[in-house]
Design a protein that fits this description.
The chain is of the alpha+beta class. The chain contains 3 helices and 8 strands; from the N terminus they run βαβββαβαβββ. The chain is globular, with a radius of gyration of 15 Å. Carboxymethyldethia coenzyme *A binds next to β3, β4, α2 and β5.
């Protein structure tokens, strides 16, 4: 597998508006997009930092993985996302190497990316996302 870069770092926050202000006012970063990912029950806000993005995540429901995460661990780094190619052929390869897949096939995430998550129990405690830019972007 070839990892091109860290695509983004996902950070779970309780209040997106407050967290956006922090990144804008303290670091001078510009939030360039806010997007709700309905099936993940999150609202996201994106900042570009060099080639890597910060993705802030606010839960839109108590059932959201982000709500559960904050309840258990508090706000903070939620996942790391690597940019990859040929994601759907990578997934069975990873599974055959003993990595526990959360998504057996890629699905649509924020910014129209094809994404799949790897379970933190098989990745040394780090919820890991693989992202592939679709061909038309
Ligand atoms: N990072 C590290 N460990 C995590 C974690 C995270 N983000 N989320 C949960 N865990 C750990 C828990 O601490 C727990 O560990 P212990 O058993 O040692 O206590 C274990 O994983 C199970 O956690 P849980 O609270 O019982 O939660 P679930 O098993 O119901 O779900 C997970 C965990 C990772 C499978 C689920 O959160 C998931 O499917 N995540 C992927 C999707 C997602 O996170 N979407 C939101 C972001 C979407 C986006 O970026 O667009």
């Amino acid at each position: 597998m070839e990892i091109n870069k860290i695509e983004h770092i996902g950070i779970a926050v309780k209040n997106l508006t407050e967290a956006i202000s922090y990144y804008e006012n303290i670091f001078g970063l510009k939030c360039y997009a806010i997007e709700e990912v309905v099936d993940q029950k999150v609202k996201t806000a994106f900042f570009m930092v060099g080639e890597t993005k910060i993705e802030l995540l606010e839960a839109t429901s108590d059932e959201s993985p982000v709500a559960k995460f904050i309840e258990k661990k508090g706000e903070g780094v939620h996942h790391i996302a690597f940019a990859v190619e040929k994601l759907d052929s990578l997934l069975p390869e990873l599974e055959s190497k003993g990595i526990q897949l959360i998504d057996k096939q890629s699905r649509k995430g924020a910014e129209e990316m094809n994404i799949a998550f790897l379970h933190p129990k098989s990745t040394f405690g780090v919820l890991t996302e693989l992202c592939e830019k679709p061909n038309n972007l």
